[in-house]
Amino acid sequence: MVEWTDSERAIINSIFSNLDYEEIGRKSLCRCLIVYPWTQRYFGAFGNLYNAETIMANPLIAAHGTKILHGLDRALKNMDDIKNTYAELSLLHSDKLHVDPDNFRLLADCLTVVIAAKMGTAFTVETQVAWQKFLSVVVSALGRQYH
Amino acid sequence: MSLTPKDKATVKLFWGKMSGKSELIGADALSRMLAVYPQTKIYFSHWKSCSPGSPEVKKHGKTIMMGIGEAVTKMDDLERGLLTLSELHAFKLRVDPTNFKLLSLNILVVMAIMFPLDFTPMAHLAVDKFLCALALALSEKYR
What we know:
The structure holds 2 protein chains of 2 kinds.
Chain A: H1 6-17, H2 21-35, H3 52-57, H4 59-77, H5 82-85, H6 87-96, H7 102-119, H8 125-142
Chain B: H1 5-18, H2 22-36, H3 55-73, H4 78-81, H5 83-93, H6 98-114, H7 121-138
């Protein structure tokens, strides 16, 4: 089981309570699709992904980015059992969506960069450590049910 | 995943913006890597401290940025340009090449903090490609 210090919990909760889900969700997913273009393979039904400009203007991508970020709420509310909280989502990504689990890390890295840009110098080393620890637990839980 | 002329221009542009603060940036990126990925500290077990702000971290951050600066000037032939550095990393330091991407991510994080508006997804793409190419050139002599 993952151990969280009070400080780590406070940091993660603070980030989420100040989060603009639509802005950060959209920016993170767009950044992932642009920086790692092979991730576009999962979004064949999402319309025009022709170049960076069309990706950033695509409303379906924007909506999906928001959805992904709200998916993180579940981990936030169940920090002491993220593994089981995401069991179903993990099966979904493996059996139905067929997402390469390495891509979770790519999206997590893009999310980190977007949050860093938003928070600026408030994204201290301590904040980054807690944030990336949280994301790595999420990524690990999402990849757990692959078989 | 080779660098286009536009990628190279983007990297040079950002490098220009960063040049006055490269020591701070290097120290910040290195501090973040050591904290977020504690396993990277094994390469610095001879240091008194791996904490942010420690003199060794500051000094080494500067060394790393100078190396990257050298790579920026040799972007057209990184393999040849970084031969000596590759030999150093391969035969003397023997840094597992998987760690290069851990430092790269933290350089990108520091750039995002410094340039929240300018570090667009396209800029991120160009710099990430460059850092990947750099890492590849650095690991050229490994085997």
